[in-house]
């Protein structure tokens, strides 16, 4: 059976130092592999065991990294195992085939956004006008598709995030708070649509998925089976669905567990 595995990356398979969640005694901490370097500094990690599991996964499934990262941010990541033929960036806005964005897919996505939701310019202006410089460190636009803020989480007012979510909802956008980033993303811009396209192209008969954030909910619902870690927006909301397994593991060990589940579901026992 042809199996497609579509997985979110950050805080699902790979982890920053701040997100590792190493709560065990130091002597029992897992060995880590650095999988991303940014400005000459190590940035993201997975356990060495997870790295081996991911390399094994390529033997039994088509592995599709599925991320909200821009193409440039994604290309910094150096995952173990063979390079993925397909990757999904910008929350579904770009479908990479052998590292190159498929122009027809991108054109279809941008046409949908123009038809179905408020413009990026309107959302960006609202963020600029309402976000307080006291707690905003950076304003960013990603791939001319969506916007996000980098914030001081301790100073961020919860009420502001709730008000932004309501404002965005009324304009066909979704708000997601992940670590120090607040994303504003058009509702038609989804990981699930891009994954369905890859499934169509590959003839996949079984789709497996994993993710931790609100922006991964549609991805998980579109899969035949899905997993979420014990941390992140979905765990905080106690979100679940019939084909979704809520795992207890938090931090980098959750990434290891997710890969074991992928391997178990994709084929022979590992």
From TrEMBL:
Molecular-function GO terms, alphabetical: hydrolase activity
Family matches, as Gene3D superfamilies: HAD superfamily/HAD-like
Entry keyword set: Hydrolase
Name of the protein in its database record: HAD family hydrolase
């Amino acid at each position: 059976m042809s199996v497609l595995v579509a997985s979110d990356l950050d805080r699902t398979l790979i982890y920053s130092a701040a997100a590792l969640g190493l709560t065990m005694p130091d002597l029992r901490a897992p060995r880590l592999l650095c999988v991303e370097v940014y400005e000459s500094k190590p940035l993201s990690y997975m356990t060495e065991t997870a790295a081996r599991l991911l390399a094994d996964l390529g033997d039994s499934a088509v592995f599709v990294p599925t991320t909200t990262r821009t193409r440039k941010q994604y290309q910094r990541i150096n995952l173990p195992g063979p390079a993925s033929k397909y990757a999904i960036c910008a929350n579904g806005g770009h479908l990479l085939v052998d590292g190159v964005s498929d122009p027809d897919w991108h054109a279809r996505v941008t046409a949908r956004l123009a038809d179905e939701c408020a413009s990026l310019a309107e959302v960006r202006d609202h963020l600029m006008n309402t976000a307080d410089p006291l707690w905003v460190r950076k304003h960013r636009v990603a791939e001319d598709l969506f916007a996000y803020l980098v914030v001081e989480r301790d100073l961020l007012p919860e009420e502001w995030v709730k008000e932004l979510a309501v404002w965005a909802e009324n304009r066909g956008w979704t708000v997601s708070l992940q670590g120090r980033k607040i994303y504003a993303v058009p509702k038609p811009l989804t990981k699930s649509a891009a994954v369905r396209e890859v499934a169509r192209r590959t003839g996949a008969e079984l789709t497996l998925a994993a993710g931790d954030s609100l922006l991964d909910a549609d991805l998980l619902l579109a899969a035949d089976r899905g997993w979420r870690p014990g941390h992140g927006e979905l765990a905080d909301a106690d979100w679940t669905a019939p084909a979704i397994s809520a795992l207890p593991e938090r931090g980098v060990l959750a990434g290891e567990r997710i890969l074991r589940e992928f391997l178990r579901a994709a084929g022979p026992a590992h």
